[in-house]
Design goal:
The structure holds 2 protein chains of 2 kinds. By secondary structure, chain A is of the alpha+beta class. Chain A has helices at residues 18-32, 36-60, 90-95, 115-122; strands spanning 5-12, 65-72, 76-83, 125-129, 134-141, 154-157. Classes of the chains: A alpha+beta, B alpha/beta. Chain B: Keywords: Phosphoprotein.
Chain lengths: 158, 110
Amino acid sequence: MDTFDFIEMKVPAKEEYVGVVRLSISGIANRMGFTYEDIEDLKVAVSEAVTNAVTHAYEVNENGEVTLGFAIYKDRLEVMVADHGGSFNLQEVKKNIGPYENDRSIDELREGGFGLFLMQALMDKVEINNDSGVIVLMTKFIEEIGVELDDDHVSTTQ
Amino acid sequence: MNLEINVTEHPDIILVQLSGEIDAYTAPQLKDKLIPLTNRKGVRIEVDLENVNYMDSTGLGVFISALKSSKENGSKITLFNLKDRVQRLFKITGLHQLIDINLDERGVNN
């Protein structure tokens, strides 16, 4: 049986708390023995998820909260980020992610278009559940055991 | 977890020195300072990111906006002194092909 320690954290759905979450993830990842590079990746990926939740939650309810869960396994860290707002159009979001390519004009670039793409690029696995509110579940393995960086993908459970 | 934004005007360039973290909280402040500068036709803006130790997609968003605005208004914007981590984000997203990033130590002759 795969045992794990679990840390739960709730922050107000406000931009000023994204940095607080970043300090927390940095501490957790450091204690688990992630490399400096991986800790920096985790900071960006988790910040992206929280930023999305804050932006999204704010549209629904100004006084919302973002709930985070950190499951600490021997070989990996799972991070759950949940807002409790309404759902969003996942197909629409997925259609718009990816790196910039030469043939696209700058006018097509959206300012907020790289958040989900960066989560995928920096984590080993990203899943999004969109049933009630949005829940992002991201996994990163210590020392890249298991999944290669190139195998990044988003899977969805609706 | 704050961002310090220091703007100094030189004869031929405007130097913007950033220090701290660019995230969802600080990106709007950066945007408010940077966009009005790009509206000035003919100016050259050099953004020094030497002391930016964290940036995410919100920062990329600000620089995309600044680039769009500079193209519309006939100004020019260059980024320089990027830390490896920050530079990596531009590379992963492919934006290094679009945004003028000076990889040398300094983009300013002073």
